[in-house]
UniProtKB/TrEMBL annotation:
Pfam families named in the record: GlcNAc_2-epim
EC assignment: 5.1.3.11
Keyword Isomerase in annotation: yes
Protein name: Cellobiose 2-epimerase
Record keywords: Isomerase
Organism: Alginatibacterium sediminis
Catalytic class of the enzyme: isomerase
Sequence similarity: Belongs to the N-acylglucosamine 2-epimerase family. Belongs to the cellobiose 2-epimerase family.
Reactions listed under catalytic activity: D-cellobiose = beta-D-glucosyl-(1->4)-D-mannopyranose
Its job: Catalyzes the reversible epimerization of cellobiose to 4-O-beta-D-glucopyranosyl-D-mannose (Glc-Man).
BP GO annotations: carbohydrate metabolic process
Length: 399
């Protein structure tokens, strides 16, 4: 497939199979979006509404509108924004809750920094799409709340889990891997705080945000990227790593997110170091983390057990991560790896019957039909963003 054909296919997939699918999940009665659909697309209207899911929906439709300015995309974004800025927002203590019921009553009020970060990411993107000043105000309020309550002044980085009133609690929300560790800090939360702060800096450049971006980038250099060019996943407060597993999906996703964040700071030397490190990580995934047909493995457990299932978000992020590495290196192997991921997506992950993407298939592309299409963690952000980013980058290449 030519790059021009690939670009056309990506935009078609985004608009006519991903965004079109999610437009059907608007909850016109209860507000926000319906947050569960089975594999065939049957909506469960009384399912609880994930705040994280709504942030990811808001980001997706906001970003899509900026490239494909269709009014229905902005309207969908506004519906997600109204949910997040309304029922999901804690007017007393600040921040967004974790979970609401189908009628938008709060059922889990914890304030996890991972969730706050995605709200910043979404609000700042909605501001860029709509120019609504309230979205920028909420982004800045969340930044200040995270810095006030979660920043670890002793060891750097952020503590992650808090109750409604911002008192620390056990960090069980993101420590859900097969390693069964309960750690105070995680790579995943810090990666998505980095992602969020980078977008806030893009929306409104500020010295205080740039300073924390620099801190986070240096943190990844010093503590999170290991000597084998993988991310450590879980850490004690003092940054001693307490996990052994390798997450190839996070490794390759993080390569382009690190580069994007580095572009938002006026530190050329740091930017160059980050770009070099992220390229080394991309090569590690290229050489260690791919199956016989180019699909990227999910995880390596205990240094010896490979999870070879094809996960929707892993292949999406790998397509983009390898292409990002190609842009820097001009290595045709990276372009080929990106195209292999797109082939896997087209032939195995896209549901050509019911729409959207299968959450997961086995090693040979057979989907697990007992898994849902929509749930609090199954969202349009990874695949929607990958299609959109690839479309824009291929457009830039052709121009």
């Amino acid at each position: 497939m030519s790059l021009q054909s690939m670009q056309h296919a990506l935009s078609n997939e985004l608009e006519h199979n991903i965004l079109s699918y999610w437009l059907k999940h608007l909850d016109h009665e209860g507000g926000g979006f319906h947050s569960y659909a089975d594999h065939n697309g049957t909506i469960q209207a009384d399912f609880n509404k994930g705040v994280l899911l709504h942030s990811r929906i808001l980001w997706t439709f906001s970003a899509a509108y900026r490239t494909f300015p269709k009014p229905e995309y902005l309207q969908a974004a506004k519906q997600a924004f109204d949910f997040l800025a309304g029922a999901a927002w804690d007017a007393e203590f600040g921040g967004v809750y974790w979970m609401l019921d189908s009628q938008c009553n709060v059922i889990d009020s914890q304030k996890h920094v991972y969730n706050q970060g995605f709200a910043i990411y979404a609000f700042s993107e909605y501001y860029l799409a709509s120019n609504d000043p309230k979205a920028l105000v909420l982004s800045e309020q969340l930044f200040d709340l995270i810095e006030q309550h979660a920043a670890d002044q002793e060891f750097g980085g952020y503590l992650e889990a808090f109750d409604c009133q911002w008192e620390p609690i056990a960090n069980s929300l993101v420590c859900d891997t097969q390693e069964d560790v309960l750690a105070e800090k995680s790579m995943n939360t810090h990666l998505h705080i980095l992602e969020a702060y980078a977008n806030l800096q893009r929306a409104k450049p500020q010295v205080k945000v740039e300073s924390r971006l620099i801190h986070l980038l240096e943190l990844f250099e010093e503590h999170i990227i290991d000597d084998k060019c993988h991310y450590g996943l879980f850490f004690q407060r003092d940054w001693q790593c307490v996990s052994q597993d390798v997450s190839y999906g996070h490794d390759i996703e993080g390569t382009w997110l690190l580069d994007d964040a580095a572009l938002q700071v006026n530190q050329p030397t740091l930017r160059k170091r980050i770009q070099d490190s992220s390229l080394e990580m991309a090569y590690a995934t290229l050489n260690e983390g791919r199956d016989f047909d180019g699909a990227v493995f999910n995880e390596l457990h205990q240094q010896r057990y490979l999870d070879c299932d094809r996960i929707w978000w892993v292949q999406a992020e790998a397509m983009l991560g390898f292409y990002n590495a190609f842009e820097k290196s001009l290595d045709p192997k990276m372009l080929e790896a990106s195209q292999h991921c797109w082939d896997i997506i087209q032939t195995q992950l896209i549901d050509h019957t019911h729409g959207e993407w299968h959450m997961q298939t086995n090693r040979f592309g057979k989907p697990y039909t007992d898994l849902p299409k929509v749930e609090p963690w199954k969202c349009p952000y990874h695949n929607g963003r990958a299609c959109l980013e690839m479309y824009l980058r291929l457009e830039k290449l052709q121009n």
